[in-house]
TrEMBL record:
Protein name: HhH-GPD domain-containing protein
Biological process, per Gene Ontology: base-excision repair, AP site formation; DNA alkylation repair
Domain HhH-GPD: start-end pairs: 45-200
Record family assignment: Belongs to the alkylbase DNA glycosidase AlkA family.
Gene3D superfamilies: 1.10.1670.40, Hypothetical protein, domain 2
Keywords: DNA damage, DNA repair
One term under GO cellular component: nucleus
Gene Ontology MF term list: alkylated DNA binding; DNA-3-methyladenine glycosylase activity; DNA-7-methylguanine glycosylase activity
Superkingdom assignment: Eukaryota
Length: 283
């Protein structure tokens, strides 16, 4: 059995109320992939934008870079704030993109290091990037890296889902979420996916904010541009890391969500030439 099937079995046994949701919705399915740097730039560009507006800007950004394969730190750093403003990117977001690219260029971050970091280290390192806060990191971990045990405690859709599932009088605070959802470990990402579907089925309105990490829009998401923060760089040593590419979920239809459930993959070995060949070693 794959990791998603294991997650569903565990969640059914751990929480009868959640089991009823699992019966109502199809399981998460596989989809396509993008490199972590591309997924993170996409996350920044879509912040606080309607889907159509975000897609328009992202398309122009890709064209400016010469295609998705051209979205690399060196190219992003070569783009001036004026060039980015001309395609609709705000000055603040331009600074976020440049900060992300600089952290890649100096070795603080890399695709291989990101894929191989544990959840806690990854959260710490990514929130060092200006413009990337806890919500964006959680979405990236779930939808791009397919980490199985991520609970987005600041996501309004997941919090609303917990309130509805357990018939709570008030929306649970982020500080309460870990305790309420403890029984779902180690598959809280999959549980969160079912909560998003539950809230959608209840007819709750979706947020105007669009895609995070290239992922389909979770309903009622809470996406804020975090305040810029200054921290001392902490250099990573990626020498022993395998060059892995994180996965990225893209939107096929605005209302038809397809979740990339690739939790069963244990390693991805990518050899980069003019063409890319990826081999997947499943559990």
């Amino acid at each position: 059995e794959g990791e998603v099937e294991n997650a569903i079995h565990h969640l059914r046994d751990a929480d009868p109320l959640l089991a009823s949701l699992i019966d109502l919705h199809p399981p998460p399915t596989f989809d396509t992939f993008h490199a972590p740097f591309l997924a993170l730039t996409r996350s920044i560009l879509y912040q606080q934008l309607a889907f159509k507006a975000g897609t328009s800007i992202y398309t122009r950004f890709i064209s400016l870079c010469g295609g998705e394969n051209g979205v690399v730190p060196e190219t992003v750093l070569s783009l001036t704030s004026q060039q980015l403003r001309q395609i609709g990117v705000s000055g603040r977001k331009a600074s976020y993109l440049h900060d992300l690219a600089r952290k890649y260029q100096t070795g603080i971050l890399s695709d291989s290091a990101i894929v191989n970091m544990d959840d806690k280290s990854l959260f710490t390192m990514l929130t060092m990037v200006n413009g990337i806060g806890s919500w964006s990191v959680h979405m990236f971990m779930i939808f791009s890296l397919h980490r199985p045990d991520v609970l987005p405690i600041n996501d309004l859709g997941v919090r609303k889902g917990v309130q509805l599932l357990y018939n709570l009088e008030e929306l649970p605070r982020p500080s309460q979420m870990d305790q309420l959802c403890e029984k779902w470990r180690p598959y809280r990402s999959v549980a969160s996916w079912y909560l998003w579907r539950y809230v959608e089925a209840k007819g709750a309105p979706s947020s105007a904010a669009a895609v995070a990490a290239g992922a389909s829009l979770p309903p009622l998401q809470q996406q804020e541009e975090p305040q810029q923060h200054q921290q001392q760089p902490q250099l990573m040593d990626p020498i022993n890391s395998i060059l892995n590419l994180g996965y990225d979920l893209f939107l096929r239809e605005k209302k038809n969500v397809s979740f990339v459930a690739c939790f069963g993959v244990t390693s991805i070995s990518c050899h980069l030439k003019k063409k890319m060949d990826c081999f997947f070693l499943a559990l």
